[in-house]
């Protein structure tokens, strides 16, 4: 570090001249001196800031990990109790395995409404927040899909827990093996999560009325589709379409819908004012 030094010399007329070297000018103007200092650290890259968002989302592990696992374990226990009370020599299939997938609607809402203000306080951009949140959801979806696969393999190995009761191992879903099952579960998880995230973004952008109108609009579209299929008596054709589509094809459609909803979420988030 350079230190200031001062030299005093006499002139021919009897006066003195003071010469200052070193950091004295910096001391005279400390604000300018601090501005001229070189940066002491490197600015975090976009990738590391996105990972910071992932860590922020996983601060509360219950949202993305423990609650989905608790829901699926509870669904298995309740389904087995029902199967045991019914009793049957033929295989029994239930829909309890879908319970944690619906929860991701709530997880998407929480990921936006509870975490977004903190990300802004951390000076994270909306793009970094969005990408980090989607990455956190994708990690959770992969973990949930792996758990489904392991549970399905267990049901196969034990012939439905010894009572012919199946919660996760559904023949059509397992038609393409564990790969197709994992793809369907992961795609459904991301679709539900991004749908909840989008509705939370709409609420932040335009308030309760906009969310209500969006919900009513989606309900109208769904009802119109059901009406058209019913009037055309095309339900058998629809079922045949999904049957021939297979699990991987269904995962592809769900993945495409997730991309559409995710894009809508990003556009809405970019235009959000607060």
From TrEMBL:
Keywords, comma-separated and alphabetical: Membrane, Transmembrane, Transmembrane helix
Protein name: Uncharacterized protein
Renumbered residue ranges of the record's region Disordered: 1-43
Superkingdom, taxonomy of origin: Bacteria
Taxonomic placement: Bacteria, Bacillati, Actinomycetota, Actinomycetes, Micrococcales
Transmembrane annotation, as ranges: 64-86, 101-118, 130-151, 178-200, 207-229, 249-269
Listed Low complexity bias regions: 1-28
């Amino acid at each position: 570090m350079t230190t200031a030094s001062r030299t005093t010399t006499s002139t021919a007329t009897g006066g003195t001249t003071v010469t200052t070297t070193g950091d004295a000018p910096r001391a005279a103007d400390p604000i300018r001196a601090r501005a001229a200092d070189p940066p002491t650290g490197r600015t975090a890259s976009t990738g590391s800031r996105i990972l910071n968002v992932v860590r922020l989302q996983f601060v509360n592990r219950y949202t993305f990990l423990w609650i989905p696992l608790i829901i699926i374990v509870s669904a298995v226990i309740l389904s087995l109790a029902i199967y045991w009370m019914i009793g049957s020599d033929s295989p029994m299939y239930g829909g309890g395995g879908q319970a944690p997938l619906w929860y991701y609607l709530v997880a998407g809402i929480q990921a936006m409404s509870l975490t977004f203000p903190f990300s802004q306080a951390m000076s994270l951009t909306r793009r970094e927040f969005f990408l980090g949140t989607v990455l956190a959801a994708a990690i959770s979806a992969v973990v949930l899909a792996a758990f489904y696969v392991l549970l399905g393999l267990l049901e196969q190995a034990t012939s439905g827990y010894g009572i012919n009761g199946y919660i996760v191992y559904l023949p059509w879903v397992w038609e393409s093996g564990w790969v197709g099952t994992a793809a369907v579960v992961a795609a459904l998880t991301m679709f539900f999560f991004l749908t909840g995230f989008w509705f939370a973004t709409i609420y932040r952008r335009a308030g309760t009325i906009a969310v209500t109108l969006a919900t009513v609009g989606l309900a109208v579209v769904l009802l119109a589709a059901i009406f058209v299929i019913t009037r055309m008596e095309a339900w058998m054709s629809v079922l045949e379409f999904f049957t021939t589509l297979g699990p991987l094809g269904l995962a592809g459609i769900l993945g495409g819908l997730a991309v559409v909803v995710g894009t809508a979420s990003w556009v809405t988030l970019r235009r959000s004012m607060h």
